[in-house]
Amino acid sequence: MSKETERFQSRKTGRSQILVTSGAGFIAANLIRMLVQLGYQVTALDNLSTRRREYLKGLPIEFALGDILDLNLVAQVVPGHSAIAHLATIRSTNRYTG
């Protein structure tokens, strides 16, 4: 096992723990499937505002419902993860301009 791989091993389970933001999105769900197949332990974080939790159906993952802008939630979810795949984006800039 390389040092790179060891760095991502969970002390608790021996499996790598990866957090995926916007986890219920189409691209994220496909990434999560691949990570699970490779043996990673995955947590998906999503507010479900524009995504579908059905994309994650049947996957052995943890799901955290909430927004990445909620710093208290992020502070609760991030610890214990060795890496974060940050896929969260603003879907439409028109919606957020003032």
Question: What can you tell me about this protein's structure?
Answer:
With 98 residues, the chain is α/β, with parallel strands linked by helices. The chain has helices spanning 3-7, 26-37, 71-77, and strands spanning 17-21, 41-46, 62-65, 83-86. The model is unreliable at 1-12 (pLDDT under 50).
Beta-strand percentage?
15-25%
**Kindly, what is the distance between the CA atoms of the first and last residues, rounded to a whole number of angstroms?**
51 Å
| Gyration radius from CA atoms, angstroms | 14 Å
General shape = globular
By secondary-structure content and strand pairing, the structural class works out as alpha/beta
Low-confidence spans: 1-12
Proportion of helical residues? 10-25%
Biggest sheet: strand arrangement: 3-2-1-4
Order of helices and strands: HEHEEHE
Describe the structure concisely for a colleague:
This protein has 3 helices and 4 strands.
SSE map:
Elements: H1 3-7, E1 17-21, H2 26-37, E2 41-46, E3 62-65, H3 71-77, E4 83-86
Parallel strand pairs: 1-2, 1-4, 2-3
Describe this protein with a few key phrases.
single chain; 98 residues; alpha/beta; four-stranded parallel beta sheet; 4 strands; globular; disordered N terminus
